[in-house]
């Protein structure tokens, strides 16, 4: 089965050749590398042209109309639409895959037609000291590091442990059920899609003992482990809940989304208040109201918290 690896590329001239070479080194027999150059200003497009010439049997390059910079979600979406593989994976241009990237996952999808996607372990790699303190809680790997049964996978994801973008291989047909990445989001856009995948797809673990890729941390990473990111995650959860409602998914799925989103909001507001971040507490609540539904707040603890915030704001 052909695998299409989608690589969004924005101002990554320094890293992109390493990422592409790592994919080539997997030796997978039918691999298409789709680079989407996202209006870079550092010579990335020139590098993509060189890579296309060097690996002309594997690498194709696309740009947005008029060379626009539309962000990672739009770039991944364009890559998915332009790609030709029955299987899809993703690799950020500053990360790498390891030679065993497709050994287990591709075989599982080949032999199990009822399986929609396979996730595996991703190693955390620090190129410098930036971010080491904030990412320490993850340990040596990022995201899921153990096998989770499909029946409880959605709950696990909503509790904050998701696979890394470079750690999942999925069938193209899964996007027919979920849609593409939500371009409204520039943070947690991947989690938003993983929630939807877990709602409608059968997703299983591969080999969780050997990392299949390396998530490189350095001074210019977009994602930072910070409580300021909690509103982004709330928006991703609330949007997934509204999507599930529109899709009229089962009551079981909706109940999991409601329960875990309520819990995440409550805990996040509590963390913000403990940090004396009234501004962040309000951002978390507004995020849910903007992209969610009032039923998410039908919970006494949340109602009490909101009432307390209102009183404190008035008194101040």
CATH homologous superfamily classification of the largest domain: Spore Coat Polysaccharide Biosynthesis Protein SpsA, Chain A
How many distinct folded domains? 2
Basic shape: globular
- In CATH terms, what is the architecture of the largest domain? Alpha-Beta Complex
Strand content: 5-15%
- Segments where pLDDT lies below 50 for 5+ residues? none
Distance between the termini: 62 Å
- Kindly name the structural category: alpha/beta
Arithmetic mean of pLDDT: 88
Number of helices: 11
Radius of gyration: 20 Å
Tell me how many strands there are: 11
Side by side, the strands of the main sheet go 3-2-1-4-9-6-10
User: CATH class of the largest domain, please?
Assistant: Alpha Beta
Q: Would you kindly provide a written description of the structure presented here, covering whatever features stand out?
A:
The protein is 42% helix and 15% strand. The chain has 316 residues and is of the alpha/beta class. The protein has 2 domains: 3-225, Spore Coat Polysaccharide Biosynthesis Protein SpsA, Chain A, CATH 3.90.550; 228-315, no CATH class. Strands 3-2-1-4-9-6-10 form a 7-stranded mixed sheet, sandwiched between helices.
Secondary structure layout plus pairing:
Blueprint: E1 3-9, H1 16-24, E2 31-37, H2 44-54, E3 59-63, H3 72-82, E4 87-90, E5 96-97, H4 103-111, E6 117-119, E7 122-126, E8 141-142, H5 153-158, E9 168-171, H6 174-178, H7 189-200, E10 203-205, E11 213-217, H8 230-246, H9 251-274, H10 278-291, H11 300-315
Parallel strand pairs: 1-2, 1-4, 2-3, 6-10, 7-11
Antiparallel strand pairs: 4-9, 5-11, 6-9, 7-8
Helix pairs in contact: 7-8, 8-9, 8-10, 9-10
């Amino acid at each position: 089965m052909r695998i299409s690896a989608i690589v969004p590329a924005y101002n990554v001239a320094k890293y992109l050749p390493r990422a592409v070479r790592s994919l080539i080194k997997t030796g997978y027999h039918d691999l298409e590398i789709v680079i989407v150059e996202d209006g870079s200003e550092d010579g990335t497009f020139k590098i993509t042209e060189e890579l296309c010439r060097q690996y002309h049997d594997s690498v194709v390059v696309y740009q947005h109309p008029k060379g626009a910079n539309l962000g990672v979600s739009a770039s991944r979406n364009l890559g998915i639409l332009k790609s030709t593989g029955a299987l899809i994976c993703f690799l950020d241009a500053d990360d790498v895959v390891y030679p065993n990237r497709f050994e287990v996952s591709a075989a599982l999808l080949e032999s199990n037609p009822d399986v929609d996607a396979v996730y595996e372990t991703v190693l955390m790699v620090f190129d410098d000291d930036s971010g080491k303190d904030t990412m320490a809680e993850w340990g040596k790997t990022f995201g899921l590091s153990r096998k989770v049964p499909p029946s409880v996978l959605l709950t696990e994801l909503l509790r904050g442990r998701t696979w890394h973008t470079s750690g999942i291989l999925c069938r193209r047909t899964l996007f027919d059920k979920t849609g593409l990445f939500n371009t409204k989001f520039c943070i947690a856009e991947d989690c938003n899609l993983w929630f939807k995948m877990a709602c409608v797809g059968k997703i299983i673990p591969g080999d969780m003992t050997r990392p299949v890729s390396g998530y490189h941390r350095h001074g210019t990473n977009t994602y930072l482990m910070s409580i300021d990111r909690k509103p982004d995650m709330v928006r991703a959860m609330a949007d997934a809940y509204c999507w599930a409602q529109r899709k009229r998914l089962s009551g079981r799925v909706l109940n999991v989304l409601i329960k875990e989103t309520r819990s995440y909001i409550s805990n996040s507001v509590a963390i913000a208040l403990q940090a004396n971040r009234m501004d962040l507490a309000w951002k978390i609540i507004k995020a849910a109201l903007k992209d969610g539904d009032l039923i998410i707040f039908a919970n006494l603890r949340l109602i009490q918290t909101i009432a307390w915030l209102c009183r404190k704001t008035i008194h101040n």
